[in-house]
Amino acid sequence: MGVCKTLAVSGLAVAAIGAGVVYSGLIEVGADVPHSAPVHAVLETLRERSIAVRAEDIQVPSLGDEALIRAGAGNYDAMCVGCHLAPGLGETELSRGLYPAPPNLSRVGSGGNPAGAFWVIKHGIKSSAMPAWGRSMADQHIWELVAFVERLPSLDAEAYRSLVASSSGHRHGGGESLSQGHGGSHHEDSAPAAGQGEAPASKTHIHADGKRHVH
């Protein structure tokens, strides 16, 4: 009983200290200040193991089909390039300001783990800038993105732009209001029906050529 009581008291003391540290505001949450090495190691391990456990039963389809890769190119250029970059594109204002820094997928691709890439794209990651695209994208379109990401590190800037231009643009069946056409142009999928409000406000998109396109 003495050991159990000691453990219980120790546990309460640790919890009280932890609560005090949290409430004190001593932990820096600014995105311009990196985590300490121990905290970074814990968070990295937590993230990697969480993804690995949840992705281990995902069945990866064949990702070498050119049509699949081409379809993923348009969505990647419209949705991902601002954070994850592209061949020939340096840091953007967005990628430079994020912490943890999003991986440069034009260099690392899926890291040899397409199942993990699929899970991350679909479900996102808490407390990061990675959204859960599965809320608006069907699995087929997510696999298209994964197929393109697998191919991405082998592309140079010209090959990247060519694939994007030959794609069907920003289309994933999730109710997106604007689509990217060939060569980086954008057009509306459809005008709003009567009584359904005004057209969406204009948005700016940064393409791999570094230019801003307002749509």
Automatic annotation (TrEMBL):
Keywords for this protein: Heme, Iron, Metal-binding
Span list, region Disordered: 166-215
Limits of the Cytochrome c domain: 67-153
SUPFAM superfamilies on file: Cytochrome c (SSF46626)
Molecular function as annotated in GO: electron transfer activity; heme binding; metal ion binding
UniProt feature, compositional bias: Basic and acidic residues: 206-215
Name the record gives this protein: Cytochrome C oxidase, cbb3-type, subunit III
Native source organism of the sequence: Azotobacter beijerinckii
